[in-house]
Design goal:
The structure holds two protein chains of two kinds. Chain A is mostly beta strands. Chain A contains no helices and eleven strands. Classes of the chains: A mainly beta, B mainly beta.
């Protein structure tokens, strides 16, 4: 059964610590995305990647980093430079073309200890 | 530029109808609609392409007015399961396959 798997579901970060959120997909999609969602807000794009070994900054990339070494995987690191990391993080993937729906993982909720 | 969704929230009784609008200041190539339940992933509903098409399944349908750069989502005879936040995502000629998301419309259905 194809889909997107995000882990962990809940994550706690200590001050000064970097944490990594995992996102794996088996849909054979070229494009992958990371979004941040704050309570009562829409989706804001952090980073996206349209092909392996290539990625671009979204609207709110500061304090985050990503890698795309494999087609299936697009991990997001929340660095200590991100001073307000508490949010719901969603990973999505799609075919790399127009008019393609994005498929989402179940999200990771990150909180500060 | 973020599309504008209206209304921000709506409360309905089961069986009533609702319309949610999504307007953009840019020339759009397509409009995507999603529904998200609290704490869950957004679920894809449908895509509307330029050309003014109207799509739908079950009692949820949508239209796209290319001239006005506006899409509307219609929920008829609403069911409790329709509750959630509805987001539109817009794709324009220069968006490089990216979706620009509206802030969402919260729909509450009461029995």
């Amino acid at each position: 059964d194809g889909g997107i798997t995000q882990s962990p579901k809940y994550l706690f970060r200590k001050e000064g610590q970097n944490v990594t959120l995992s996102c794996e997909q088996n849909l054979n999609h070229d494009a992958m995305y990371w979004y941040r969602q704050d309570p009562g807000q829409g989706l804001r794009l952090i980073y996206y990647s349209q092909i392996v070994n290539d990625f671009q900054k979204g609207d709110i990339a500061e304090g985050y980093s990503v890698s795309r070494e494999k087609k299936e995987s697009f991990p997001l690191t929340v660095t200590s430079a991100q001073k307000n990391p508490t949010a719901f993080y969603l990973c999505a993937s799609s075919n790399r073309a127009s008019n393609q729906p994005q498929h989402f993982g179940d999200g990771t909720r990150l909180s500060i200890l | 530029q973020q599309p504008v969704q209206s209304p921000q929230a709506v409360i309905l009784r089961e069986g009533e109808d609702a319309v949610i609008n999504c307007s953009s200041s840019k020339a759009l190539y397509s409009v995507h609609w999603y529904r998200q339940k609290h704490g869950e992933a957004p679920i894809f509903l449908m895509i509307l392409l330029k050309g003014g098409e109207q799509k739908g399944h079950d009692k949820i349908s949508a239209s796209f007015n290319e001239k006005k750069q506006q899409s509307s989502l219609y929920l008829t005879a609403s069911q409790l399961s329709y509750s959630g936040t509805y987001f539109c995502g817009t794709e324009s000629m220069d968006s490089n396959y990216q979706l620009i998301w509206g802030a969402g419309t919260k729909l509450i259905i009461k029995p």
